[in-house]
Amino acid sequence: MALPRFFAKLNEHAIETFLDEQHKDSEEWGEATGRTTGKLKRSRLITFSHFVPFQELCPEKRFLIEPLLPKVIGSSPLAEQIVRLTPDLHVFGHTHIPIDLALDLQPSSSSASSASSASPSSLSLRPPVTDAASRRQTSTRFLQWPLGSSRER
User: pTM, whole model, 2 decimals?
Assistant: First the structure.
């Protein structure tokens, strides 16, 4: 587990800077408009990684050419960072399997109350959901569309 933590640590400064700016912009927006919604005002956020962040994004074993794939995918440090950021879209690679799924990154009511402590087992797969009032997607879409090597085409 040392390697995933090493790479996650490389992301920390950028993540903290981004989150600080989002909170600052949200506070300024709230002061300017007189609104205090408690939510961040932000544009769409797209994140990316080479590795698969959640085990839930792996197809069922019966669909896999390599049956041991589930043992080597998923990264807790990467998953924790994605939960903190709650992007609209996360693009990833590594498995060469086309995947287009949505995960609700909000912890279930039976799990911990903060999103940063959500474990993959408390997350649920579902189609992308849009909140009708805000027209905002309430889940994160995870997308991998590999072009493949010439052998895989």
Answer: 0.71
